[in-house]
Amino acid sequence: MSLGIVFLSEVFGTMMLTLLGCGVVANVALKGTKGNNGGFLMVTWGWGIAVFAGVFVAAKSGAHLNPAVTLGLLVNGKGEYAPDVAVTFGSTLTYFGGELLGAFLGAVVCWLAYKQHFDEEPLAANKLGTFSTGPAIRSTPWNLITEIIGTFVLVFVILTFGGTPSGLGPLAVALLVVGIGVSLGGPTGYAINPARDLGPRIAHAVLPIKGKGASDWAYSWIPVVGPLVGGALAGLVAIWVPDIMPALAG
């Protein structure tokens, strides 16, 4: 498979992910929407369905949709990112680039869909929260730990039981994301995906959003570094699991 196809697959898959994911947050957070004040459970299910849709769209490329998943596969020693897509420096950058661009574009389309409600929303924090994550209690080390743990769970389960998201199955990955959200999403909003947070944050910074306020760049590195560390750790630990489990069972 050509890297051009891989790139477009990840762009469109991640675009669908963030369009629907940021869309459910907009529906809950912005003034006057039909889903206003729908609650965190609505957000977590919306993100799960967003993952479900994104995995189907990006099936050709293995549907990483997330640099932490790509990094986890790399660290785990996989020979291919998807059928006929060898793990190389070039293919790794292709995945990263497609994921980031797709996340940015999905957030832009979400803004277009909710343009009038962004204009009516009085709170800048609600506008930023539609695009990117933020902590309930701001604490650099603890926010970082939360993102590492959440992403570790995501990538470890994918690597242990499925090999790649498409191998595990779209529904299983979607339910896993819902489970992480309702279990571990409270402290930081569970970015668990550098592209999902950074791409929309860039969109927030450049779009002409009325009364948008700052994009909180001081926090922005945490939902990037935390998931990358969590994904890499999951890739390392998953190497040992096939050897450990038989020993424990015996």
From TrEMBL:
Q: Which domain of life is it from?
A: Bacteria
Provide the transmembrane region boundaries: 6-28, 40-59, 93-114, 144-162, 168-192, 218-241
Record's GO cellular component terms: plasma membrane
Membrane topology (UniProt) = Multi-pass membrane protein
- Its main subcellular localisation, reduced to a broad class, is membrane
Q: Which InterPro entries match?
A: Aquaporin-like, MIP, MIP/Aquaporin, MIP_CS
Keywords noted in UniProt: Membrane, Transmembrane, Transmembrane helix, Transport
GO MF term list: glycerol channel activity
Q: Does the keyword Transmembrane apply?
A: yes
Compartments annotated for it: namely:
Membrane
* Classification via PANTHER family: AQUAPORIN OR AQUAGLYCEROPORIN RELATED, AQUAPORIN-9
Q: Which family does it belong to?
A: Belongs to the MIP/aquaporin (TC 1.A.8) family.
Q: What is this protein called?
A: Aquaporin family protein
Specify the species: Paenarthrobacter nitroguajacolicus
